[in-house]
Amino acid sequence: MANVSVAAEWQLVYNRYYRKPELYQMRWKHIDLSRNKVACAPFGGPIAVIRDDSKIVQLYAESALRKLRIFNSAGVLISETVWKNPGGRLIGMSWSEDQTLICVVQDGTVYRYNIHAELIEPNASMGKECFEENVVECVFWGNGVVCVTEANRYFCMADFATMKVCELARPEVEELPHCVAVIEPKYTMTGSVEVLIGTDAGILMLDEDGVQKVDDTLSQKMAVSPNGNFVACFTHDGRLVVNNTNFSSPVIDESCESALPPEQIAWCGMDSVLLYWNDMLVMVAPQAEPVQYFYDEPLVLIPECDGVRILSNSSMEFLQRVPASTEQIFAIGSTSPAALLYDALDHFDRRSAKADENLRLIRASLPKAVEACIDAAGHEFDISRQRTLLRAASYGQAFCSNFQRDRIQEMCKTLRVLNAARDPEIGIPLSIQQYKSLTASVLIGRLINANCHLLALRISEYLGMNQEVVIMHWACSKITASLAIPDVTLLEILLDKLKLCKGISYAAVAAHADKSGRRKLAAMLVEHEPRSSKQVPLLLSIGEEDTALVKATESGDTDLVYLVIFHIWQKRPALEFFGMIQTRPLACDLFTVYARCYKHEFLKDFFLSTGQLQEVAFLLWKESWELGKNPMASNGSALHGPRIKRIEKAHSLFSETKEHTFESKAAEEHAKLLRIQHELEVSTKQAIFVDSSISDTIRTCIVLGNHRAAMKVKTEFKVSEKRWYWLKVFALATKRDWDALERFSKEKRPPIGYRPFVEACVDADEKGEALKYIPKLVDPRERAEAYARIGMAKEAADAASQAKDGELLGRLKLTFAQNAAASSIFDTLRDRLSFQGVS
């Protein structure tokens, strides 16, 4: 009998059954759909209602001000607001994929509202042309809209996220179209919007590139199928023609009773098309007689992926094709395994032996029967019927050894979620197919946006999903709605819930509190944020620079410390900034490293404020060297003056500290040397002195023949006699002034001996000059080595024999290894020394 009562509600259309269960009795009052513009979101979404200003209607006890009201699918009021938007008559409204209400007015302005009837800024516009020509019609799809102007021009906003508008090709017809339909970009070959318009010349297809005629049918109403493959057209002679989008092969060509175009046309899944006139709803399907449903109140058809929701003043119904599993079980006279299993449960409950008989009949097909019962339970809206079907599946599963044990559990989970969402107070009547298309995460997001946080949290917890998004949104909403609650009390309420989710971002909640004008609450919340990378930037944004610097230094993250340093640097006076970083070594060191490279003057102010005079001196000294690298610092450039002043200032600062006596003296002498070198460059007009050493300066002066200047440098810097002789010897050799070198050697006995004279001559490859000084060498070893360097073997051997050094003789032999005669001389002398007992 149960099967009969269920199937009695079905309607047979050719070989398919359709059913129309009632989802809700609408809870709203005094809402007449015929007097209002209505926008219903798919997937059981909200319903927006506003009085139609294109109609003359009688006002009862209501205000003359138009109100935009938003209800859930059960007619429970979610929010409302007074419509005060300029721009002329409201042409159309629809819900986007993210449940934003899009409203297009006559001048082309696009207004957006969230589910709480709050206007989302900024508004958008369909363009100057729409403003001047007025919008007369608009057709929406998932996330876009096409507007038609009085001049028969077509403008498309393909994505509400970007709000970019483009004009489509203009048809060569003056009259406005009888109907407009849109093929979504995801279903077109070009990936852009294609618009079908019904005109007196037939059906035209528009896109950005051009216009083409696709069919001669004179269409008055059109609807594109959910998959974009078919177009349903109601013609001028009262026929419904369903064709593919190429208009090459009609699927349906059915005459209707009325030649008047229907008020609405919609697809019921992919199997049939619905036509609605004033009091009649007609369903047309291939190879079947039209089915008529009569209503005494206005309707709104809401296409879904698996059927059509039918909204009236008093109820919400869902017209869909009966699922195959449900048909197997409840069809009148069905003897399928699933039907017998369902019947077996009934006999089992009545303690009848017929239950065992049914199970024996379907033993081989029992797994399929169990699966069918589970699937049918998922498609049911009636909770008691869901329970009975699941009990039947569980009963059959007990006799199956190879059936997946978790299938029933999974379906139970899904149905519990769906039943919770279908509750009239929530009002989201999703079918299981819609739920699978929408996904659980999107459902939770929609519950959050509707402020159904408790249900969203319980579903997240039940399905093992991340609860952070739910708790975060709840916390932000709580802050916004709790202006009268003190910060400390509200903090306790928030922390009690936030601690439920590990790793939740306290910083994000604190940022919302700051944005809501509760800076003290934000500061208290951010103290609980464990991640410095999120904590520190927020502390800076709410003006807690001191705390931010402490947290950044404690984290040890140099990037965060630099972030705080630069922020405070820009916001605070210099002395206050110096005081903040001085007590924190890490911040102080990082600031110093950065400022040494880019901000010398600011760093000098910092060192002066902290009494680090020697650091200022070092900076000045470094600056002087940097000036020296300037290409302009040549030929007596004016840059030498600032360089010397900096070094002198560094000397002055060094002299004020006892620990830097050496640096003070070095700076003083450096300044003196630079001044002399500057004068030399001016007098010689050669940029070869500055930044050279004292030794190089003396050597260069001698090479240039300026002996007086060389003596002055020697005297000024107290150069020792030995160093002076070394420098002058090699400078004269470089100059190849051998006469001057000889005279210099005879002035007095050189304090460095004559060896440097010999080396200078040998290095200059002047062996003859070297012979003048070799005999003057006192040490016979040095004399022997000097003779060897100029290739005089015999003289080297004589000198070596005087030294009586066998090792020296061995080295000299190696020097003359290529000269056999010389080698024999050294061998003879070595043997003689060995005979005399000298090693």
UniProtKB/TrEMBL annotation:
InterPro entries in the cross-refs: VPS16, Vps16_C, Vps16_C_sf, Vps16_N, WD40_repeat_dom_sf
Annotated ranges, domain Vps16 C-terminal: 504-817
SUPFAM superfamilies: WD40 repeat-like (SSF50978)
Cellular component annotations (GO), alphabetically ordered: endosome; HOPS complex; vacuolar membrane
Keyword Membrane tagged: yes
Domain Vps16 N-terminal as annotated: residue spans: 8-407
Keywords of this entry: Membrane, Vacuole
Location of the protein in the cell: Vacuole membrane
GO biological process terms, semicolon-separated: endosomal transport; intracellular protein transport; vacuole fusion, non-autophagic
Topology of this chain in the membrane: Peripheral membrane protein
Signal peptide from the UniProt entry: none
GO molecular function (one): actin binding
UniProt record similarity statement: Belongs to the VPS16 family.
Function: Required for vacuole biogenesis and vacuole enlargment in dividing and expanding cells. Involved in the docking or fusion of prevacuolar vesicles.
Protein name per the record: Protein VACUOLELESS1
